[in-house]
Design goal:
Order of helices and strands: EHHHEEEHHHEHHEEEEE
CATH topology of the largest domain: Cathepsin B, Chain A
Shape: elongated
Low-confidence stretches: 106-113, 206-224, 285-293
Largest sheet: 6 strands, antiparallel
Distance between the termini: 33 Å
Number of domains: 2
Number of helices: 8
Strand order of the largest sheet: 5-10-6-7-8-9
Mean pLDDT: 81
Strand content: 15-25%
Helix content: 10-25%
Structural class: alpha+beta
């Protein structure tokens, strides 16, 4: 029922837990079909309290209600009004998944082979590895290996004898490669990246104008229905420019990336910082029926 829990069943914690947890590996947006037990099963946790304690640093039911009301934005209770329940109408609705959980794989799509991550073969060839993987995901493009891409654009990247720099391509030259007419992309320079931008430019669903509508229709999309986005950015881990391929996962509605250095990862848009170069396909794969009649 809509409303708040009874006053005797909610207590503020003596010290508020930091939120969100810093080392989470995934963000789950709750729906009306979720509860703590179903979330524990989904992410292969033996005890729902492990998930609660990870998010709120408590195993106290009354304090948990306080966190659900104030951190998650719950506005629906169980019939006895002793506990908050999930409804999908929360102001935040985000529960964070701990590193000791297991992320379930996306449901397979029989019409699209599952691609292994495109690991780069040279220390600085991430731009070519990302484009190679992207060329296999984007319909109607010529599929190219990383080595062939490096051969095709030989004059643009660093081919000196210094193996630490071999294969490197500056961010200001990405547009010359990813924007080549053969790939049929549009190059953009961004100050920051948002999930709604990725959603709109990989599926055609305009999240910024009608976010709920776009996210509802995202459910009818599979990976085959979208063309991921190439992104070049400054990566603190590698100490220079790096490249990923990103998209919004249809099931989890979170940003997913293929990082040529480490494989598939979940990413927060803020991870990419500022001064970003992106290459977006000029068309989308999705069927227009995703937009209704």
């Amino acid at each position: 029922m809509i409303g708040k829990v009874l006053p005797d069943y909610i207590d503020p914690p003596p010290v508020r837990a930091p939120f969100p947890p810093a080392d989470h590996i995934h963000v789950h947006r709750v729906s009306a079909t979720d509860n703590w037990w179903s979330l524990a099963r989904r992410y292969q946790l033996a005890d729902p309290w492990d998930l609660i304690e990870y998010n709120f640093r408590t195993r106290d039911a009354k304090q948990t209600n306080w966190y659900l009301e104030n951190y998650v934005g719950c506005n629906t209770t169980t019939p006895d009004q002793k506990n908050y329940s999930f409804s999908g109408t929360e102001t935040s609705g985000l529960i964070y998944i701990p590193p000791f959980a297991t992320i379930p794989s996306h449901r397979p799509d029989p019409s699209q082979p599952i691609l292994p991550p495109g690991k780069q073969t040279h220390p600085q060839s991430c731009w070519a590895a990302a484009l190679s993987w992207w060329s296999r995901r984007a319909k109607g493009r010529t599929r190219m290996s990383e080595e062939r891409i490096m051969d095709e654009y030989y004059g643009l990247w660093n081919y000196s004898g210094n193996m630490e720099e071999f294969g490197g391509l500056p961010l200001n030259k990405l547009g010359s490669v990813w924007g080549d007419t053969r790939w049929r992309t549009s190059i953009s320079k961004l100050s920051t990246l948002t999930r709604d931008f990725v959603l709109s430019r990989t599926t055609g669903l305009i999240a910024s104008s009608d976010s709920d509508y776009a996210h509802d229709h995202l459910e009818c999309l599979e990976m085959v229905d979208m063309i991921p986005m190439l992104i070049g950015y400054k990566d603190k881990r590698v100490g220079g420019p790096h490249a990923n391929v990103v998209w919004v996962d249809p099931e989890f509605r979170q940003l997913r990336a293929m990082d040529p250095a480490i494989g598939y990862v979940w990413r927060d848009p803020g991870f990419y910082g500022s001064g970003i170069t992106v290459a977006c396909a000029n068309e989308y794969n999705h069927p227009r029926t995703c937009f209704g009649p």
